[in-house]
UniProtKB/TrEMBL annotation:
Highest taxon in the source lineage: Bacteria
Keywords: Membrane, Transmembrane, Transmembrane helix
InterPro entries xrefs: DUF1275 (IPR010699)
Protein name: DUF1275 domain-containing protein
UniProt cross-references to PANTHER family, sorted A to Z: SLR0142 PROTEIN, UPF0700 TRANSMEMBRANE PROTEIN YOAK
Segments passing through the bilayer: 59-78, 90-108, 168-190, 196-214
Organism of origin: Noviluteimonas gilva
Length: 224
């Protein structure tokens, strides 16, 4: 029982979680061991930097947080909805994310903090592309909610309550895909340094084009 999820939701969620895992691994290893795809640790470190009156670190961390928010704002402007629905302009959003990640790789190569800022903006854009699909939470750049849902499901199982099996399977897919992305990102970073971001940049571009083609095909089928 549970929410019905079409194939494109499974494929998209897994692919984007893998991309986020790669971006976070490369960003973590290349930007003073700071997370890029989520802001909990960044906000904590920002508070600590302010307390220590470290102006440079405070500005860098605040820039990353602001960039993530701006990326989410761009998603809101482009897609104009928080629920996954075919026909939305996800291809445009993914193409923009790809451009941001390519630009981030260039800035990282120059040892510029702008690299982390652009990567955070790309992640904010991706994470805001969708909040839910038919009641299932779809977040692809951080895992706290996914692990929470798994824990809730475990609690329900222990009480003999019915499980939303597909929702839990989606959580498992996103967690596994993010982990795989982190592994790939670390391996690529060891070989390519921050140029490893070129791989997720390419993947988001490919996924964006794939969605655009799928959307076009869907539109042609509707017309016929």
């Amino acid at each position: 029982m549970g929410v019905q999820l079409p194939r494109w939701v499974w494929v998209g969620a897994g692919a984007l979680a893998c991309v986020a895992g790669m971006v976070n691994a490369v960003g973590f290893l290349g930007f003073e061991h700071q997370a890029i795809t989520h802001l909990t640790g960044t906000t904590t470190l920002l508070g600590a930097s302010i307390a220590a009156m470290d102006l440079r670190a405070s500005l860098d961390l605040a820039g990353v947080a602001l960039a993530f928010v701006l990326g989410a704002a761009l998603s809101g402007m482009i897609i104009q909805d928080a629920m996954l629905r075919l026909g939305r302009r996800y291809g445009v959003a993914l193409a923009l994310e790809s451009v941001l990640l390519f630009a981030s790789a260039v800035m990282f190569r120059r040892h510029e903090t702008t690299g982390a800022i652009l990567a955070a903006m790309a992640c904010g854009l991706q994470n805001a592309m969708a909040t839910t699909y038919s009641g299932a939470v779809v977040r692809t750049t951080h895992l706290s909610g996914m692990f929470t849902d798994v824990g809730i499901g475990l609690g329900h199982a222990l009480r003999g309550m019915p499980l939303q099996k597909r929702r839990l399977m989606l959580c498992g897919l996103i967690i596994a895909s993010f982990l795989l992305g982190g592994l790939l990102g670390a391996v690529l970073f060891a070989r390519m340094s921050t140029d490893a971001l070129l791989v997720p940049a390419t993947l988001t571009g490919v996924v964006g084009v794939g969605y655009a083609l799928y959307r076009h095909r869907l539109g042609m089928g509707t017309q016929s």
